[in-house]
Amino acid sequence: MRVAANDRGALLVAWLEELLFLAETEGLVPEAARLRLAPGSLAGVVRGRLADARPLVKAVTYHRLEVAQDDAGWHARVVLDV
Questions:
Q1: What is the torsional sign of CA 53, 57, 59, 60?
Q2: What predicted TM-score, i.e. pTM, was given to this entire model?
Q3: DSSP assigned state of 15
Q4: CA–CA separation, 73 vs 51, rounded Å?
Q5: How far apart (Å, rounded) are the C-alpha atoms in residues 20 and 48?
Q6: What are phi and psi for residue 24, nearest 5 degrees?
Q7: Contacts of 81 by beta carbon, 8 Å cutoff, 6+ apart
Q8: Could you write out the three-class secondary structure of 18-53?
């Protein structure tokens, strides 16, 4: 799966929206992911299982979105509409 956007926050939102789409349309329950970040794109492979469960998340939002780096590494906050 690959997404493109202009900044890291938008990349994170786009990635999560793709996961939500797969959960809604294919029943994917993600369990692990390997990601590769490049300027303007985020690509990776998601491993999981299929389930016949209704997704709990309605939408990924930009409300209070944060992506920042400090001495400990990268941190992000995303608000989900449930």
A1: negative
A2: 0.87
A3: H
A4: 33
A5: 13
A6: -75, -40
A7: 57, 58, 59, 60, 61
A8: HHHHHHHHHCEEEEEEEEEEECCEEEEEEEEEECCC
Distance of CA 28 to the CA centre of its chain: 13
Three-state SS for 60?
strand
CA 35 to chain centre: 10
Amino acid type, 63:
H
Residue type, 47: R
- 16-60 per-position pLDDT tens digit: 999 999 999 999 999 999 999 899 999 999 999 999 877 789 999
Q: How many C-beta neighbours within 10 Å does residue 16 have? A: 18
